[in-house]
């Protein structure tokens, strides 16, 4: 084992061992009834794509209020999660999981930053092709490994699915002490893209990690005498859940700063890594995406192949003849996390739509589309394929792709209306 790999492993193991110990200390008698969901669907009125009251998933989460903020440090992610756990004891295990994710993000941020140094030997291709036929970068593999290690030692995960794994990985099956892992109590399913936009990484362009957390189906009771077979069937199907079943989603953006943006189902919160103290600090409490904008962010080289309704809307935005009458600008990094982060803060529309060559677009539903849609909706935006709310699509398989247009409510609604009008006139 190379020295740097060994040190990273030791670092992750030590921090995660702390989290496991923390979770074990927790009172196991806590009522583990889950936070109930009040609303999870959208309605269609005269072709209007309208999310039910309050935009999207409404969960009965008691969000912390911070009256006193330390001038020099601010509210750290650790403190935020402690407050969430204190206000919502049934969420204790979820907040423990977030500590591990934050640790992984710090480690990935460090790895990505150091990758540019001449001796890092982490740039370029791994020499492997993933199940989707894409060349894996070395950093795709390294970051996948970092996340897997960080998550599995929490003792809270049953199954995970990653862009860089051919099939869902059974965390428990990968461990020596299976029983101990199951004794931990509540468990979750994690889906993630460890390094989205990695084709950009050799040039030092922003990249990101995307994570979605689902509940592990209680029906999936593991029979250790028949472990392999069960893992393949019932338990693996746990990963194929629609975005409406997400209990949490987050992304980390590795850019001029490292950001950690999350939702636990009650608003979207942004944290920025203070490298001096090694902590994520609350920098963007309750992000609210502007309702309308004048920025669109799509790979325009494919415009001629997009669906006609979308072509017309974008053409109107360019010319200033769209619904808002504003002339739009184009901003496209080609790295979804960076493009969506800017969209959340400045407003705008990010899309990777369907085109004639790729009728389902490029982005993956499970670990890119759904978690990012959840974050955008929780900030007051919309996310659609043009005809369907992305969050409501049930995946048929792990690496399923989905066309996406997400961002400022009024502008995304303009796209939805254009599709609805086109469908109405074709059915007349
Ligand atoms: P990846 O998961 O293989 O990195 O691909 C996803 C990325 C997104 O971050 C980005 O929006 C898109 O690919 C850009 O694709 P393109 O280069 O076709 O515009
Ligand atoms: Mg990706």
Plain-language structure description:
Residues 1-41, 45-50, 53-57 and 172-185 have low confidence and may be disordered. The strands form five sheets. The chain has an eight-stranded mixed beta sheet with strand order 8-7-9-10-11-12-13-14, sandwiched between helices. The chain folds into two domains: 2-284, Fructose-1,6-Bisphosphatase, Chain A, domain 1 (2-Layer Sandwich), CATH 3.30.540.10; 295-427, D-Maltodextrin-Binding Protein, domain 2. The protein has ten helices and 19 strands. The chain is an alpha+beta fold and 428 residues long. The radius of gyration is 21 Å and the shape is globular. Bound molecules: 2,5-anhydro-1,6-di-O-phosphono-D-mannitol and magnesium ion (MG).
Output the strand order for the largest sheet: 8-7-9-10-11-12-13-14
> What is the top-level CATH class of the largest domain?
Alpha Beta
Number of domains as seen in the coordinates = 2
- Could you name the ranges where pLDDT drops below 50 across 5 or more consecutive residues? 1-41, 45-50, 53-57, 172-185
Mean pLDDT across all amino acids: 78
Beta-strand residue fraction: 15-25%
Structural class: alpha+beta
Order of helices and strands: HEEEEHHEEHEEHEEHEEEEEHEHEHEEH
**What is the 3D form?**
globular
What is the CATH T-level topology of the largest domain?
Fructose-1,6-Bisphosphatase, Chain A, domain 1
Largest sheet geometry: 8 strands, mixed
Cofactors, ions, other ligands? 2,5-anhydro-1,6-di-O-phosphono-D-mannitol, magnesium ion
Record field, number of beta strands: 19
CA distance, first residue to last residue: 67 Å
């Amino acid at each position: 084992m190379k020295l740097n790999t060994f040190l990273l492993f030791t670092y992750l193991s030590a921090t995660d061992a702390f989290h496991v110990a923390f979770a074990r200390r927790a009172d196991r008698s806590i009522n583990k009834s889950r936070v109930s969901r009040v609303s999870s669907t959208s309605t269609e009125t005269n072709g209007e794509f309208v999310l039910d009251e309050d935009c999207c998933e409404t969960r009965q989460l008691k969000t912390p209020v911070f009256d006193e903020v330390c001038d020099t440090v601010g509210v750290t992610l650790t403190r935020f999660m402690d407050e969430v756990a204190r206000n919502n004891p049934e969420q204790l295990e979820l907040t423990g999981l977030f500590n591990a994710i934050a640790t992984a993000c710090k480690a990935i941020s460090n790895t990505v930053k150091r990758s540019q140094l001449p001796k890092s030997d982490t740039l370029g291709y791994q020499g492997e092709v993933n199940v989707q036929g894409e060349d894996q970068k070395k950093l795709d593999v390294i970051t996948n490994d970092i996340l897997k290690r960080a998550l599995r030692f929490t003792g809270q995960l049953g199954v995970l699915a990653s862009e860089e794994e051919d099939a869902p990985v059974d965390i428990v099956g990968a461990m020596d002490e299976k029983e101990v892992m199951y004794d931990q109590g509540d468990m979750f399913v994690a889906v993630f893209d460890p390094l989205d936009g990695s084709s950009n990484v050799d040039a030092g362009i922003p990249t990101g990690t995307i994570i979605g957390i689902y509940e592990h189906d209680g029906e999936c009771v593991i029979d250790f005498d028949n472990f392999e077979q069960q893992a393949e069937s019932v338990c693996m199907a746990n990963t194929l859940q629609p975005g409406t079943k997400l209990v949490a989603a987050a992304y980390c953006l590795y850019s001029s700063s490292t950001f950690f943006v999350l939702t636990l189902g009650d608003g979207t919160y942004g944290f920025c890594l203070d490298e001096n103290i090694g902590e994520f600090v609350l920098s963007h409490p309750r992000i609210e995406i502007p309702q309308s904008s004048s920025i669109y962010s799509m790979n325009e080289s494919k415009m001629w192949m997009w669906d006609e309704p979308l072509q017309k809307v974008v053409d109107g935005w360019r010319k200033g003849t769209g619904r808002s009458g504003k002339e739009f600008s184009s901003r496209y990094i080609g790295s979804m996390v960076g493009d969506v982060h800017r969209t959340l803060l400045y407003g705008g529309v990010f899309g990777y739509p369907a085109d004639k060559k790729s009728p389902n677009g490029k982005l993956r539903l499970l670990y890119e589309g759904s978690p990012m849609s959840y974050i955008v909706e929780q900030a007051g935006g919309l996310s659609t394929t043009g005809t369907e709310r992305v969050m409501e699509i049930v995946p048929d398989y792990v690496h399923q792709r989905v066309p996406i247009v997400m961002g400022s409510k009024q502008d995304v609604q303009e796209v939805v209306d254009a599709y609805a009008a086109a469908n109405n006139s074709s059915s007349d």
